[in-house]
Amino acid sequence: MRPRLHALLASGGLTLALAACASNAANMTSSGPDKPWAPNGNEQGLWSAQSRPATAVPKTANGAPDFGIPTNPALAEMPPTPDIDLARTYTLPELIDIAQRNNPDTRAAWERARQAALAVGMVEATYLPLITANVIGGQQQTQTPLPLPVGTQRYFNTTSSGVSPSIALQWLVFDFGQRAAVADAAKQGAIAANVLFNGEHQKLIFDVSRTYYSYGAAVTRSRIARQALGNSIAIRAAAEDRMSRGLATTVEVAQARQAVAQAELRRVLAEGEERDAYQALIAAMGITATLPLKIATAEKRRLPDAVNLPLDSMIQLALSRRPDVAASYSAVKAGKAGIKAAEAEFLPKVFVAGAVASAQGNFNATGLPTIGQQATGMGVLVGATVPLYDAGLRAAQLKQAKSRAAAAESDFRRTQTLAVTEIVGASNTLRTALQSYKAASALVSAASITYDAALEAYRNGVGTVTAATAADSDLIDARQAQADAHAAALIAASNLAFVVGAMTSAEGGPALPPSSAPQPLRP
After folding, report:
1. For position 516, what pLDDT does the model report?
2. Going by C-beta distance under 8 Å and a sequence separation of 6 or more, which residues neighbour residue 160?
3. Torsion, CA 432, CA 433, CA 436, CA 437, rounded to 10
4. pLDDT single digits (tens) 131-141
5. Of these four, 109, 122, 431, 510, which has the most CB atoms within 10 Å of its CB?
6. Alpha carbon 86 to its chain's center
7. 19, 25 contact by CB (below 8 A)
8. Do the strands 294-295 and 89-90 form a parallel or antiparallel pair, or are they unpaired?
């Protein structure tokens, strides 16, 4: 009895000691909220056994606390560079193809779709029996002191040992459709995940198209800024020539030089915006920003004067194939299946259980021969379980399932309304962009004539440098407005195709019928 008491006391003391050490894990943090953390080299050990580290507080050269973290070279390992020919000039469909093969968002969406599909398989596995193999074995020794010694024997020793392997079967045979309802909900979740995977690709195609057209507009603005700089230099040369012949004042030359400086500033800013637009395009593709791709822009793409969009039929088409609407509808079906599963909890379940087992044991006592025994057995049970009382748990679960279904229905209606709003807004934006491009084109034509006339008049001494520089500035603004309107029209067309669920392919552009979208605006 005394050795067992000692063992119990020792185990209890060890348990208390380990529990007291749990708070030591806080020593792995910094010593205060204003002190930086620094590793002590023992982060992979048992935190509960750590004492307050004696590492010095990291400081800068000026003695201020340094909250930097240690360098970890593994964090700087980038994914392999995609197979891209840097000497080739890429078009929009080729850029979309690169993005679809390398963008991490589409990969993550694909993995989520796989997880949802595997969830269906796991639910369907519950229709089949569960068969397990089990084995239990052990040995027990006892030592009992004898009242009187028998010869040299002062204790009576016994040893018992045995092993029992078994195979057990558990099978839920009937549950009033609960598993079917759960499987239906899982299938709807898998359908939604697959739909959203395709939707992620549609979003990627739109994002690449949008940033591609924005980049094209930035390239055009840079070219216009360089042309404007050349125009300003021509005006300055004319002013300096007139001054050399005594026909211009220093004020006119100063104004011309100021115009050159302003044009140079515009060029620098425009080229900076071009670089930013390029980085936005590369980021949308999901590839490393250091790749210097050559990209063919769409600045020469012709636009129609106006479009007539059958709005009602386009809305009906969009609601029938937009990924977010389809996924929301799957959520509604999953919610209804959840109600059926919750209702089945009130009904009995029928199960079958069975086992096949064998046992082998030995018993050995001091001075007696060993006794061995072997046995086998098997059994099959059929049972039913009926829930009687659970303090309202099942009723609460049913109400929760109905609430989820109602929320899913509301979300579906909201998604439909939002889709219609987006389609109408995208249609209006496209119409406005096309009208803006038409107006900007007329403005460019008029501004070009004005600039040519003002420069020629100044060269011939019948105009002023102020009029020439003003005409140059107006021409720059008109050309940039035209470039922006051109890109806005292309982006608006892409956005319209996206919100109607038609931006489904990199090669074919928006998959709209001829009566539903302006074909010349396909990205």
Report:
1. 36
2. 139, 140, 141, 361, 362, 363, 364
3. -150
4. 999 999 888 88
5. 510
6. 28
7. no
8. parallel
